[in-house]
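Consider what follows.

. . .
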Amino acid sequence: MKNILITGGSSGIGLAIAELLIKEGGYRVISLSRSQEKISRALSEKPTLKDKIDFVSGDVSKPEDCQRVFEFIEKKYKMLHGLVNNAGMLTAGGILDIDYTLWKKNLDINLNAPYLLTQTLIPLLKASANASIVNISSIASRSPGRSISYSVSKAGLDMLTEFLAGELGPYNIRVNAVNPGLVETNLHLDSKVISNTNEYKKMLEKSIIKYPIGLIGKPEDIAQMVHFLLSDKSLWVTGSILRIDGGTSVFNDILPRKEA
């Protein structure tokens, strides 16, 4: 059995990854979330997960919470085979909109937390003899989106991925990143970037034209790639930044879209 820790594991992409791992079998999942409300919501919507996943609350941008997570895993499982740094936040706006306090909060969650948690858990990852770290980044890391703080933090996460792949490789720890395009989750609503469900649906409908295959992503689409990277099928994959974006990164708005 492989022990896998997923941050932001009580909603959206994180919860989809947890559910897939449980379904596939061979995994014990620890789901870490800052929000007890999201944990309660996940258990309310999917009560069967209560006995299958360890739901833990904590803010991994805080050293003391990272240490508490370390002690929990060390005491219960002795080692960690996989870490998915998925927790994130999104604040819309540029340098004229986002003050330094909010900028720092975004970078703390999206970039500093993965650094801090990974650093804290390295002894447990080493103990597994063949570990995998997967960072959930974004295509916004290479193409500015609606948020300066989100884009910059994800660009930093990509470089952290590549650096750690080289540094931790000698310990048989692989490090990769997955860069999703627009995925239908609660991120925009929870972050108050979009005010209500109707506006969110309109945004999705408007965005679909920029996706050559005509589909907006689902959390399950990302979960499949993460599962591959956590599994022994990807033993020779490290330092990769993998786009899963429905082709939006190569969208060409000069050539007209052809009708089927």
In short: The domain at 2-187+217-245 is CATH 3.40.50.720 (Rossmann fold).
